[in-house]
Amino acid sequence: MITRMSSLFLRTLRDDPADAEVPSHKLLVRAGYVRRVAPGVYSWLPLGLRVLNKVENVVRREMNAIGAQELSFPALLPKEHYETTGRWEDYGDALFRLKDRKGGDYVLGPTHEELFTSTVKAECSSYKDFPIILYQIQTKYRDEERPRAGILRGREFVMKDSYSFNMVDEGLEESYQLHRGAYRRIFDTLGVEYVICAATSGAMGGSASEEFLAIADNGEDTFVRSTESDYAANVEAVVTHPPAALPITGQAEATEHHTPDCTTIEALVEWANREGIAVRGRDVTAADTLKCVIVRITEPGTDDEGNPHRPTLAGVLVPGNREVAMKRLEAALVPATVELADDKDFARNPFLVKGYVGPRALAEHGLQVLADPHVFEGSAWITGADKPEHHMVGMVAGRDFTPDRVVEAAEVLEGDPAPDGKGTLTLARGIEIGHIFQLGRKYTEAFEVYIPDESGKRTVPTMGSYGIGVSRLVAVLAEQMHDEVGLRWPATVAPYDVHVVIANKDEAATTAASELVEKLSDAGLDVLYDDRPKVSPGVKFKDSELLGMPLIVVVGRGFSERKVELRNRFTGEKLDVAYEEAVATVQKALQEL
Amino acid sequence: MITRMSSLFLRTLRDDPADAEVPSHKLLVRAGYVRRVAPGVYSWLPLGLRVLNKVENVVRREMNAIGAQELSFPALLPKEHYETTGRWEDYGDALFRLKDRKGGDYVLGPTHEELFTSTVKAECSSYKDFPIILYQIQTKYRDEERPRAGILRGREFVMKDSYSFNMVDEGLEESYQLHRGAYRRIFDTLGVEYVICAATSGAMGGSASEEFLAIADNGEDTFVRSTESDYAANVEAVVTHPPAALPITGQAEATEHHTPDCTTIEALVEWANREGIAVRGRDVTAADTLKCVIVRITEPGTDDEGNPHRPTLAGVLVPGNREVAMKRLEAALVPATVELADDKDFARNPFLVKGYVGPRALAEHGLQVLADPHVFEGSAWITGADKPEHHMVGMVAGRDFTPDRVVEAAEVLEGDPAPDGKGTLTLARGIEIGHIFQLGRKYTEAFEVYIPDESGKRTVPTMGSYGIGVSRLVAVLAEQMHDEVGLRWPATVAPYDVHVVIANKDEAATTAASELVEKLSDAGLDVLYDDRPKVSPGVKFKDSELLGMPLIVVVGRGFSERKVELRNRFTGEKLDVAYEEAVATVQKALQEL
User: Could you tell me which residue ranges the Aminoacyl-transfer RNA synthetases class-II family profile domain spans (chains A, B) (predicted)?
Assistant: First the structure.
């Protein structure tokens, strides 16, 4: 197949779009792959659509290979389904809601658990209908608060979502592993650099869950991995293994000290070392101090009288060298939401002495005390004394204060021991490209899916939910594979296999280029042919770099010696090839990409 | 490729769905191709999705062949685009409107003239960028007042819409003809029985326009065709050629008659013939009487003070043997809307004597008089005398009354002369499957698309707009090709090429069937294999008829003599074939379909 640039609907731009911050966004717009229509809403121009379709096909092939069956649900969905599961409310502002001419309430589907579950309920009646894996590749809608980075986080986007239904839990594990394998093959085929991260299940409910994160400095998600094993996890999912409890007996009594101007950890550590206070024979560090952070926790839903739950205050204890990681804390307290307490909270509770809060006052005044696992039994701390300009030294957990609950609340730091006991953790950023999830029976129970099992017993099937951000993957590939001059597409998804540039005005060269293009097409290749008569070679070269086909063939000056130049967009390598051998050389180079 | 029915996500239904009236709707639901989610909103289950995709691919191939370039616009569109063209208002309740979290107004795109035009404006800057044909195959949304017949008229549906942009009018004609050819090839490939009808341009503006109508008794559109030529037209577009004017001199004076109880045409004709009134020496028929129908015409938009235009009353003159065809009248008066006057209108205007309205009173009281072309100059009529129980005889057009305007207002009748002068018209019903349209500069002017032509002159490109109802075509094929027992798919779009049914419990037969299925698949065919172990042959046969693959192979009793049966779903023909020759015979039969 041949596309001639003289008639291609394409305009490349010299300048980055004003609203673009990340390279993929800049380049996809500059190269004419996508165009912005509204915040987070994009058009796919011809080249972009070709990449999107190719990504879809890679996904489709691997889904079919695990026996998943493709169908397609509407995007316009009646409210009822989302009321059944409570997500009409839970989704909040992220749901696009609308009314039809008769006043009926509808949503634009943000994800389709509801439709799949109710359809399985309607179509299936026997254990023999299971297991099932169903999927669709479909346009979804989420009214993101901050759509960003072009198609990386859009409000209208293409997703592959699939759902497994099994009569027994072991079946769910099997469907989950099938997906895990398919996802690995998909991302490997596309050449994405990614990690599989243990994830928390968040608001979705359910148990096991892993995220596939493409590694990218611009990523929104932080993850950790071990220096010495395959361990990788979303920071929310990192589990801290505290040391064994220390004996309390024999530890010195806690003592109160006057500590003026010690409202920061740094000042406190400096004071302690100035005073000669030592911990197990060494200088005090920030890790020996205890931060006592006051937060406001709100449970979702309403109380018995139908009013939203009021927030309650709690104290969170973390070592002084770590911040409270709000996302980790929230993941631990799901489905509640957590915010930092504000000045009004302190004003209303004068026993909270700002800068000098300690665990004792909390307990005395009935506030819940949540401790990070680092604050383990027998550990001793320098902490606030609950009065201005005073701190306590030698406050021992389990003796001088006792947490109500241990939760993962502290940030994960580079160098922390890996939870699997092998090596230490490094921090990196990534973009979520896939998520697999053992959902359990939350949705099948909500929709009352009852299926008689082999013995006739009424059984609720268990469900898995699995997603791939298909349109996002186009941005991720651009993000990971571009260089300073433009896009670079792997052969699997490049809009065209090869880009032929005519850069010689000689009539014989022009004829030869056209013939070469025909021959490449006859050999089954998709060819982009820059035949624009009045465009300079320099502009053509720049465009070919920007557009990013993996191979570029230049019919240029060398044609006087019947040579063409083969450029590899990834390696930058340039090779002179005899015109007669050009087709074979291109085919070979494509296989080697 | 092989799909086994033992694991296929499919439930066939014995009964027609309660809300289904037309065969395609009943069968597509019963055969498990689609499922209703909300009025006019359907899910595509695996078999249905396969047909939809195949139809899409036929469309895509022919669009690419005329040099059209595929892209994809969002469905979620900001209000601004539709305000520029006034369609935010004009579309009325048919537009799905919604707000995002920030209060911004959006629509779900019902058709994309706006997006294509503004994109061409943004991307094109030179006459060298033209001509362009762009298209997409995309999900569209229209809040139909009466969604009907399943996917035949849905609220969420798939359309191919394309748009041509040309610098000169001759180019538009060329792009139009390219589409006309592509559409013919598409519908011919699919095997649809259709006519190309001259159409009015309706509210879209523009000039030449043709509709592709699939012939179907259940169709919503009435069209006419000639008994002796290729002429076909939407009834709205039928042009009446009146006879030459008759001489007025020499015609008898009009006379007033007492006509009690003659408030119907039948009674009036009976009275006339009883009185011995003759027309050119023959008995009076209904065609000699003149109906004077009062209508209310409302112009769109607002008056100078911003109020909606008030309706004005007018009289419409048609021969007594024809009804006023409101759609034809409205097409003639576009963009105004037309309704019949009601009792209040008569009460307010006592000069309108119900049952005895004639053209004279209208003129005297300043009402506009609209005459159908059948009411031509010199024609004489029996008509109301504008007082109770009285009619006039011999009222001559051009002498006793003069229409203000001639408009196509009367219904077209079977047997009317064809407008092309060849043969007479027959009436039939159809379903619109395609529409091609020389739109002109309405949208390019609204978006101020100015392109310098070769001489540098600022030029507004002219546009064509072309649509195919892709999801509707699935229903149309079902509608035209089904029989009393089920669906019948042409090989081009059938979900599978062949349906293999095992109807013999013998182990050797089962093994042979499985091997046959593998061989068919190896030969490149898509095979649906009914391997369900506990389902009776009778049920399997019924399902195979319902599902409608073009060829069915039964491995049944005959296998004891190593024979299988090949059934042709279209002809009903059954053929015994030696097992060893089955693959070759199926391949041959497929080619001959």
Answer: 35-490
The predicted-structure confidence for B231-283, as pLDDT tens digits, reads as follows: 888 888 888 888 889 999 988 899 999 998 888 899 999 999 998 888 778 88
Give pLDDT, residue B203.
43
Q: Let me know: does B295 contact B338? Beta carbons within 8 Å.
A: yes
Examine the domain organization and report whether B341 and B385 are in the same domain: yes
Q: What percent of chain B has pLDDT over 90?
A: 75
- Same domain, residue pair A557 and A461: no
Residue B521 lies in a domain: yes
Same domain flag for B111 and B58: yes
Longest dimension (CA), chain B: 96
Angle between helices B46-65 and B470-481 (to 10 degrees): 110
CATH number of the domain to which A329 belongs: 3.90.960.10
Query: Within a domain: residue B142?
Result: yes
The alpha carbon dihedral of B450, B451, B452, B457 has a sign of negative
Tell me, what's the pLDDT at B553? 97
Q: Count of CB contacts below 8 A, A vs B?
A: 139
Interface test with B, best of A143, A161, A470 (most B CBs within 10 A): A143
Among the listed residues A346, A347, A279, the one whose alpha carbon sits nearest the alpha carbon of residue A319: A279
β-bridge mates for residue B72, sequence order: A44
Residue pair B103/B58 in contact by the 8 Å Cβ criterion: no
CATH of residue B36's domain is: 3.30.930.10
Q: What does DSSP assign to residue B421?
A: S
Tell me the HSE value of B381 on the side-chain side, using a 13 A CA sphere.
Answer: 31
Q: Which residues contact B450 (CB under 8 A, 6 or more apart)?
A: B458, B459, B460
Spacing of C-alpha B27 from chain mean position: 21
Q: Which of A49, A67, A72 sits opposite B43 (nearest CB)?
A: A72
Percent of chain B that is helix, strand, coil (3-state, to 5): 30, 30, 40
Residue B73 to chain A, least CA–CA distance (Å): 5
Average pLDDT over residues B371-375: 95
Cα separation of B508 and B544, whole Å? 23
Residue among B11, B75, B119 whose CB faces A139 most closely: B75
CA atoms within 13 A on the CB side of B41: 18
Residues in contact with B76: Cβ distance below 8 Å, sequence separation at least 6, in sequence order:
A38, A41, A96, A108, A141, A155, A156, B106, B108, B109
Strand partners, A130: none
Nearest chain B residue to A74 by CA distance is B43
Is there a domain that residue A416 lies in? no
Query: What are A303-353's pLDDT values in tens digits?
Result: 888 888 888 999 999 999 999 999 899 888 887 889 999 999 999 999 999
Measured CA to CA, the distance from residue A291 to residue A308 in angstroms comes to: 30
Going by pLDDT thresholds of 50, 70 and 90, the confidence category of residue B302 is confident
- Tell whether B263 and B129 lie within a shared domain: no
Tell me what the mean pLDDT of segment A32-59 comes to: 97
Complete DSSP assignment for A522-580 = HTT--EEEE--TTS-HHHHHHHHHHHT-SEEEEESGGGGGTEEEEEETTT--EEEEEGG
Token pair for residue A433? 């490209």
Q: How many domains does chain A have?
A: 3
Asked if the bond preceding B308 is cis, omega within 30° of 0, the reply is no
Whole-number Å distance between alpha carbons of A227 and A425? 6
Spatial CA neighbour of B155 closest among A40, A98, A82? A98
User: Who's near B45: CB < 8 A, 6+ residues apart?
Assistant: A71, A123, B9, B10, B32, B33, B34, B35
Of B346, B326, B348, nearest to B337 (Cα)? B326
Q: How far apart are CA B279 and CA B319, in angstroms?
A: 14
Answer whether 0.90 is exceeded by the pTM: no
CA distance A43 to chain B (A): 5
Helix axes B23-30, B470-481, angle to 10 degrees: 100
Tell me which residue range forms the domain holding A510. 498-592
